[in-house]
Write a structure and sequence with these properties.
disordered N terminus; 78% helix; globular; disordered C terminus; Growth Hormone, Chain: A; mainly alpha
Length: 482
């Protein structure tokens, strides 16, 4: 019954994804070339990550390690990202994002090689290297792309299209990567380590393409790594938007990682018979298609809503799905809740990517993105460390609470940004007799290119006026970093 319902959902989802997705044709050729060049590298890097995912636990188990020992290896990976991630971000801003992405290939490649050795300490070292590499994957690549996008003077609006495409193809790659790993292990009978060897080949190819096609870009090269980190921390505590984004990231992504660990045991607990097997492959594919649908729903919603408003919806739906998962014992109900949560994941990634591009300063963007990961890694490590003592109800209830906290922060961010736009629109109306409509091009403080009435020069003049107004400063918090 579970397999059949999952297959039906997967089939319907694929149909809807095909209908929803239509590549944008309004962008000029040079932007498309830039976008394709970045996506090729980014998706190769993500493919290497996805190919390993399905067999990490299985490989450790085949080596004879206990559940507790395997848990320690996973904690080491998140702990590594927690400890070293912030420094890696500062290094990227100081010494170059391209070099940092090349370092990703090196570190993750070494991590793949350690999988050949049946020794706890060697595997532990591999997990530590993998944790650092993951921090780079989720910060340096995006930071490099945003820096190049802005330096080429492409409109900021086009970033949302890149982030949407990233999310869509990431879901496709997740399915393809898992399928390839399964073929290598079960079809070709090459052993549990085969997916890691395939990932190593992909990582070598990724570093080669980066070396040949990317140019270097930096944050602030005039200061030390520690100064970059200090500047990022100062922004985190002094700029309301940066702080809110950090909390939003920690709340959502920690819930997402906990969900990754918990969806299998939760669904198993709802089965009537302990002998009934979960169709892991079909369910995982359905999750990824749900995420892809979310990315396309995001594309449609951007025509009528801001990214902050879209995030409000995503968090609200996420809270409901976690509450359902906490209280329900019905397999079908829980499965629908999980599919719905994955749709919110598809909404989240392009929304938060666009918001980060808009509000995080270029010179310490990679550093800040890794500082944001500190909170989520602390939460995930804490849950994993105590996972045997926590019931499913407590874990999913905790996720619901985290998402509710994130929802409040999204609402505050929405109020702050909409307050700025309202003030901007009023000032434009006062200066140029424009229609003071905050939602219809009355002038965007954060993105002057969206201004249809006053032009970039007028937007800058009004921005100065708005920032000088005490009322606006009180409503909007600290001044923008952009």
């Amino acid at each position: 019954m579970l397999a059949a319902s999952s297959i039906v959902f997967l089939f319907i989802s694929l149909q809807h994804t095909y209908i929803l997705y239509s590549p944008a044709t309004s962008h000029p050729g040079d932007f498309k070339k830039f976008q394709r060049g970045f996506l090729l590298v980014y998706l190769m890097a993500k493919a290497a990550d996805w190919m390993q995912g399905p067999y990490v636990y299985a490989l450790y188990d085949s080596y004879g390690f206990s559940h507790e020992a395997i848990g320690q290896l996973f904690i080491a990976g998140y702990g590594s990202s927690l400890v070293f991630g912030t420094f890696v971000g500062s290094i990227a801003d100081r010494f170059g994002r391209k070099r940092n992405c090349l370092l990703y290939g090196l570190l993750y490649g070494l991590s793949c090689l350690t999988k050949h050795v049946n020794n706890f300490n060697v595997l532990l070292a591999g997990r530590i290297l993998g944790g650092v590499a993951t921090s780079i994957l989720y910060s340096a690549f995006e930071t490099w792309m945003i820096s190049e996008h802005k330096s080429t003077a492409y409109p900021d609006d086009w970033l949302s299209h890149t982030f949407t495409t990233m999310t869509l193809w990431d879901g496709i790659l997740a399915i393809a990567g898992g399928l390839l790993a399964s073929i290598l292990v079960d079809g070709a009978h090459l052993g549990m380590v085969a997916p890691f060897d395939a990932a190593l080949v992909m990582l070598v190819a990724t570093t080669a393409v980066i070396s040949m096609t990317w140019k270097e870009n930096y944050g602030d090269r005039t200061v030390t790594v520690s100064h970059n980190l200090g500047k990022a921390m100062n922004l985190l505590f002094s700029n309301s938007k940066v702080a809110l984004i950090g909390i939003i990231v920690s709340c959502f992504e920690s819930s997402m990682y906990v969900f990754v660990f918990m969806w299998t045991p939760k669904l198993k607990s709802t089965l009537r018979s302990s002998e009934e097997a979960l169709p892991h492959g079909v369910i995982f594919a359905s999750f990824m298609v749900s995420c892809m649908i979310g990315s396309q729903v995001y594309r449609a919603l951007t025509k009528i809503w801001t990214d902050e408003n879209i995030l409000r919806v995503a968090f609200a739906v996420g809270v409901v799905t976690m509450i359902v998962a906490a209280v329900s014992e019905s397999t079908t109900v829980v499965l629908v809740a999980f599919f719905s949560f994955e749709v919110t994941v598809g909404l989240y990634w392009p929304s938060i990517g666009t918001i980060r591009a808009r509000y995080l300063p270029q010179e310490v963007r990679a550093t800040l993105m890794n500082v944001f990961r500190v909170g989520l890694n602390i939460i995930v490590v804490t849950v994993l460390y105590n996972i045997e003592a926590l019931s499913h109800r407590k874990i999913f209830s905790s996720c619901a609470i985290l998402l509710a906290m994130g929802a409040m922060c999204v609402h505050l961010l929405y109020q702050v940004t909409q307050g700025n736009k309202s003030s901007m629109a009023a000032a434009l109306s006062e200066l140029g007799g424009q229609d003071a409509d905050a939602d219809e091009g009355g002038g965007d403080v954060e993105n002057p290119k969206k201004d249809d009435g006053g032009g970039a020069a007028a937007a800058k003049a009004v921005k100065a006026k708005v920032e000088a107004a005490p009322a606006t400063a009180a409503a909007g918090g600290a001044a923008d970093t952009q």
